[in-house]
Design goal:
Blueprint: H1 11-22, H2 73-81, E1 88-91, H3 97-113, E2 118-122, H4 139-148, E3 157-162, E4 172-177
Parallel strand pairs: 1-2
Antiparallel strand pairs: 2-4, 3-4
């Protein structure tokens, strides 16, 4: 059997191992491992930077991200029954991730600018058994919810949820858009 070579243990790892080894009784004829010397004390920390003068300005704090909220029960039921229509649809089938991400951003910005409140994003369910052994299945289905949670889309997206079966079920999402703020409008 070959001995496996790896990286040498760090001082901290050696100290931890010695601590564990002290808690057990060594086999007959074996000695306990020696504890490595303590690591050298870190150098003194540099002094904190001087306080900025009156000319220096602080960067404004980033506004907190608005939380995502689920669709209301009433809206979900109306969509499921077909009593409420989606105001826009984008189908991302057949697109690569970068292309789909760009198309989604453009679609959501345009939809919000047009005053739409509820849109449908079709991702597809992924290739069931049709992809090769090394190909990913349902990449967009997995990535679109991640994109919708990103900080750059939070000012647009109020919430999202899996679509009703007649709108694509697990292969589509209802996306609720925030109302567009007009210049000078109070938040």
């Amino acid at each position: 059997m070959r001995r496996r070579r790896g990286r040498p243990l760090t001082t901290e790892e050696l100290r931890l191992w010695a601590h564990v080894a002290r808690a057990v009784t060594p086999l007959a004829g074996r000695a306990r491992p020696e504890e490595p010397p303590a690591p050298p004390e870190p150098a003194a920390a540099p002094p904190p930077p001087a306080a900025p003068g009156p000319a220096a300005r602080k960067a404004p704090a980033a506004p907190p991200l608005p939380p995502l909220v689920p669709l209301e029960r009433k809206t979900r039921l109306a969509l499921g029954r077909g009593n409420l229509r989606v105001e826009g649809v984008i189908d991302l089938h057949g697109m690569r991730q970068a292309e789909a991400h760009g198309a989604l951003l453009h679609f959501l910005h345009a939809s919000q600018a047009r005053g739409r409140a509820l849109v449908l994003v079709i991702t597809g369910k992924g290739a069931d058994g049709q992809a090769g052994p090394f190909e990913e299945r349902g990449v967009l289905r997995r990535m679109v919810p991640h994109w919708l949670r990103l900080p750059d889309l939070r000012p647009l997206v109020l919430g999202f949820e899996e679509a009703a079966p007649h709108h694509g079920g697990a292969g589509a999402l209802y996306v609720r858009l925030r109302r567009r703020r007009m210049p000078g409008e109070a938040s």
